[in-house]
Amino acid sequence: MKTTLRNPYVYLLFVLPTIALYFLFFIYPMLTSVYYGFTNWNGLDTKDFVGFDNFVNAFKDADFRNSIVNNLYILLFSCCVQVPLIVVFSLLISSVKRFQGFYKTTVFMPSILSTSVIGILWGYIYDPDVGLINSILQAFGLEPIYFLADMKWALVSILITNAWQWMGFYIVLILAAILAIPKDIDEAAMIDGATGVQRAWYLTVPLIKPIINVVIMLSIAGALRVVDIVLVMTGGGPAGATDVMASYMVNKAIKYGDYGYGTALSIIIFAFALVLTALYQILIVRRQEKVEY
Amino acid sequence: MEKKLVSVLAVSVAMTAFLAACGNGNDNEGSSASPSASESPSASPSASAPASESASPEKVENFTVSLRHIQIGDAQKFRKAILDDVVKQTEADVPGLKIELDGIEDNVNRFTKLPAEMAAGNPPKIFDVFGGAGDTQKYAKAGRMLDLTPILDELGLKDKFLNGVLDPFSVDGKVYGLPIGGNTEGIFYNTDLFAKYNLNPPTTWDDLIKAADTLKQKGVTPFAVGSKGAWVPNMLVNTFIGRIAGENTNAGFITGASKWNSPDVVAAYQLFADWEKKGYFTKGELGKEYGDMLNDFVAGKAGMMFDGSWRSSAFKNDAVGAAIAGKVAFVSLPAIPNGKGDQTSVNANYGEGYGFSADLNDNELKAVKAFIKNMYSDEMQLRGLLEDGVLPSMQLSDESIAKVTDPIVKQVLDVLKNAGTTFPHFDSVVQSKVYTETETQLQKLIANKATPQQVGDAIQKVQDAENAAAAK
Amino acid sequence: MTATVRKSIPHMVMIAYIVVILAPFLFILFSSFKANNTEIATHPFGLPKKWVFENYKEAWVKAKINVYFFNSLYLALSSAVVGVLLAAATSFAITRMRFNRISSWVYQFVLIGMLIPGNVLFIAQYLLVQKLGILDTHWSLFLPYTAGALPFSVLLIAAFMRSIPHELEEAAVVDGMSVFRMFFQIVLPLTVPALVTVFIVNFLGNWNEYLLSFFFISKDALRTLPSGMVQFRDAFQTNYALVCTGIVFSVLPVLVMYTFLQRKIIEGLTAGSVKG
């Protein structure tokens, strides 16, 4: 026991590759980001130390504030609309015997497709001239909606596409938890005369709370991570209506050549992630049972 | 269990090995290159050419040179054919050379991909680039682009270019890029639709407005436009500014001689906003691409579009716009009442061309020279004019120009001939940050999120900062 | 409300949801066979009047979807496999080997990565791969993909390994088993559910990745499906039928694979992540 599991060379061999790779692609970029965040580096020749200017400017920047708000919309939509729907659909699928496998397989399907392919696909669904939705609207004699061009609709359109892609993934996770609940509990409740809805709400949901928490955590992380779909579908437009923090950061760095400012924004995004995670842990998880993966 | 594990390990090792192979030597994947080229060691940019190159001319070393172009999609097929021929010729001229083409959409290349590559210091060896402070001059100052002056001298090309067209590509008298051709931005209109509604050609302001109002009334979009990339509506803004604030305005932003928030420039934005309000432009334009604009115009959904003269080749019989071939005419924007300056002046750009990486070895330099020699020749300039409707950036004889038969190209040439003077597009004048801000602000104007005055103020703020930085 | 009606409500709701999932696919599929934009616009739902197969030939020639597809597949696979193995080795070391103080530091250190949204590091990573001289090679994607999955993988696999009773390896040590054999023959097989889950999550993440692949790769032959498809769309934007064909090409193989593997994927995904 002593020698075998205390061999420091083996330990290093097992740990070092991970640590090295992790350090190189996480910690080192984080440190360089902090460094660049305090400069006005333009990607080419200028690189002066500018103190906290970038951070001060970021919060004066109305367009960046707008992108923060958009991120918050996505977050709220994920947690307050998507998660309840996910739970309801999971309960529905778990309640049926026939076609259960078919439902599960089909709802999961979009999550195996590339986000950018989905972005392209839905771009055509939303197209004002030839798109599926507008063709339906026109069949009912309604005016076409310019989904991705209209300030009011663009973000909603992206949210729907994002939900379309990822809801199935979470449904499958929650469904597995529901199906893992011992059957006798449910049967006992059934004998007591509880209706399906009652059993779902009073029995199943409390039992799957840990996994719901996990899904909420993943949704929060996912909301901050949304960027591919925005870049593919709208590029942040029209006029910033769908810009999220990450897409705004990419645009500022690459298109404007403001690498210093861009990295400062990335640090702010990191800070947001920290704060949200901490808040969620403190406010929700700590008060319930400890969630273990 | 052990067996399973070993096989998993084997697979992953194989994967890694394969990855390594792909990382190093797949320059020729997906192209019908000569198979021998795949042993090329020059995949990495730092591969050094043998110093004794000249001593042993028999030794042919295979190498590849990357070339970034923007001639993708059906609308660009004429220009792509010219490029392909130049590439073929260059490969024949330089033994061992294989040119690796990488086609990317214009806007993506100019505003996303190339800037990122320039920052990382690894642009393609040959690339499509624009002139001006925001592009070539910025990269040249940062030492990223090859000084072409000695090559131009060697090939005797310098005096072949038209007067002044090399200026946007020059820094301190040294030339860093070569314009491929020129264009002017003006109005394409559908002569069938104009005849159908008894409209006069839009050569005077009153006729233009009457045409727009009539088309609008008849349920036809007056102007097709695709504003998802704001460079498209920016073309019209640029000419509005030239007409209303005078032809010298655009060139003056960078010196401080003119200001974005001056009353005249704001008036130009106001005119644009008025046209928006009157519904002169395609509905949902902020979601439309540049290609959609042509589509709508070709489909007869719109009576006019404001576009660059390079689009003329789309209306040939074998092109994407064949449906309305022979039914399209081109005019410059008519004089605007009370506009300042010369109202016969038109926009003229020699903004787009090729630049070359400063990081070249001897072999690559040879390839670049051969490419320049083949691309910037009388033959290719004439082909560009005849086949693609792109105005030459080099001097062509009158006989050559007389060969033009395409009616739209003839109209374009007339427009330029009748112009009192020309003015540039501000995208080849101002710094990249300023230009990007004009796009951001114009989209806000279109979305009714900003007033013309706010637009002007916001752009001028960036312009001031950039001018101050440049003066340092 | 009779029992049958009540029983059919879940099915009705689910069928509506299924229609929403499938309709876009059908629309794209039908559009890909249509002659031109006008036909798509006038008959959006119906089958094509005349089945046009030229689009398929054209799309195949114009976009190297097979190349993109293959690049994506092997990058996603290889970095997911390597990531899982690295994470498993590390998890083994920090949960089973007797270096508790260091292990707890290592664990905390790696978990910090969970808090960093991937795209935050994009600019700095771009400069990093450029400095490493691997820009425009598949290494520039393989390494960040592998590294990016590590925090989550270590978290999940370590949690799983902790639940394995210690008696097992005590017996193994008494038998004189080496630490490598213990890892490969005892602990890894017991951890398979977690490994599969991590593998699937990582694979999907890599398969989807667009931002890095767009900026780090400039050679057409090296592009992955996400960035390659976006460029194809940009080039042929207004040729709806052609782009729809491209989508079909890129989606079909995935769906075929999925129909064969769906059971394994879904079970694998849930086996390691949900415990009771």
Helix/strand structural class of chain C:
mainly alpha
Largest Cβ-defined interface: A-C, 98 and 102 residues
Largest sheet of chain C: none
Count every beta strand of chain B, where a strand is a DSSP E run of 2 or more residues. 13
Report the order of strands and helices of chain B: HEHEHEHHEEEEHHEHHHHEEEEHHHHEHH
Principal-axes shape call of chain C: globular
| Total domains of chain C | 2
How many whole angstroms does the radius of gyration of chain B measure? 24 Å
Structural domains of chain B: how many: 2
Any overview of this molecule?
The complex is a heterotrimer of chains A (293), B (472) and C (276). With 293 residues, chain A is mostly helical. Chain A has helices spanning 8-37, 53-60, 62-95, 100-108, 115-125, 132-139, 154-179, 183-191, 196-207, 209-225, 228-233, 245-254, 259-285. Chain B has two domains: 62-182 and 350-396, 3-Layer(aba) Sandwich (D-Maltodextrin-Binding Protein, domain 2), CATH 3.40.190.10; 185-347 and 417-471, 3-Layer(aba) Sandwich (D-Maltodextrin-Binding Protein, domain 2). Residues 1-56 of chain B have low confidence and may be disordered. Chain B is of the alpha/beta class and 472 residues long. In chain B, a hairpin with a 2-residue loop joins strand 4 and strand 5. The two termini of chain C are 35 Å apart. In chain C, helix 4 (65-96) runs parallel beside helix 7 (139-162) and helix 11 (225-236) packs antiparallel against helix 12 (240-273). Chain C is globular, with a radius of gyration of 24 Å. Chain C has 276 residues and is mostly helical. The model of chain C has no long low-confidence stretch (mean pLDDT 85). Chain C has two domains: 1-52, no CATH class; 64-273, MetI-like (MetI-like fold, Orthogonal Bundle), CATH 1.10.3720.10. The chains are: A mainly alpha (293), B alpha/beta (472), C mainly alpha (276). Chains in contact: A-B, A-C, B-C. Chains A and C meet through helix 1, helix 3, helix 4, helix 5 and helix 6 of A and helix 1, helix 2, helix 4, helix 5 and helix 6 of C.
